[in-house]
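ok trying again, last paste got cut off:
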Amino acid sequence: MQGRTTDWQEWQVIKNDLNQVCFEWNTHRITGKKTSIAPMGRPLTMFELPQLYGTRDYLFAVSPSEITMCQEESLREEIFTRIL
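nice, full thing came through this time. structure:
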């Protein structure tokens, strides 16, 4: 039982680290350069309000059956944890 707790705690540390990286990435400012045509701004704002950057929302709906198919085709957690 102790091993499972340790594994869970390690995953919590990894999850917290990844959440911090996501926050820092999404809130940092991409600065413009004279030689670049790429837009500048905060990644989260650019994603949430693409029309402010002269583009559109490229997201599209995915059906629950497509999600299930992808889940079934991906590696199961048991296989992944044995690799680590």
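cool. Residues 2-27 form the longest helix (26 residues). The chain has one domain: 2-83.
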